[in-house]
Amino acid sequence: MRCLPLVIGAIAAFTSAASAQSINLTGTYRCIQNCRDGYLGAPAFVTQNGENFNLVTENGDSFRAWPDLTAPNSRIWIDARNESAVYSPDGVRIQFDDGRVWQRDFGPPPPRVVWRRASVVGAR
User: Fold this and answer.
1) Residues pairing with 108 in the sheet
2) What residues have CB less than 8 Å from 45, skipping those under 6 apart?
3) Residues of 3-38 as b/e, b for ≥16 C-beta within 10 angstroms?
4) Which of 3-7, 50-54, 119-123 has the lowest mean pLDDT?
5) Number of neighbouring beta carbons within 10 Å of residue 96
6) For 17-42, what is the mean pLDDT?
7) CA–CA dist 102, 65 (Å, integer)
């Protein structure tokens, strides 16, 4: 009976850690607002390994980040910049405290498919 509180505590800890990270942010983004001078529309990259993030900004700077445990589930902390960022529930946008906004780059749309009726050779 004395182990029951320990088991409940362990389950709660694992559950809260899992719910804090329900989305994978790995991918290419484009800086769309408050970008560094001359870098509007430049690519930025996020690589997520478990709870750790590697960020490459629109101007090529690299930073490490991790979930901000003092804030809601959709916030990451970049210690080297003393800054946090909020990501949208679907992972499409990341907004930093300094006003920069990254939007996920899904690439160009697929080419349009045009169906043509096959012509019959030798038909009379």
Assistant:
1) none
2) 27, 28, 29, 54, 55, 56
3) eeeeeeeeeeeeeeeeeebeeebebebbbeeebeee
4) 3-7
5) 20
6) 84
7) 15
Instruction: Please give the Cα distance from 31 to 41 (Å, whole number).
Output: 5
Higher pLDDT, 21 or 15: 21
| Separation of alpha carbons 66 and 78, rounded Å | 7
Separation CA 75–CA 23 (nearest Å): 12
Q: What is the pTM of this model?
A: 0.71
Residue 4 has pLDDT above 80, yes or no: no
Which tokens is 82 given? Answer: 């003393």
Tell me: pLDDT of 53 over 90.
Answer: yes
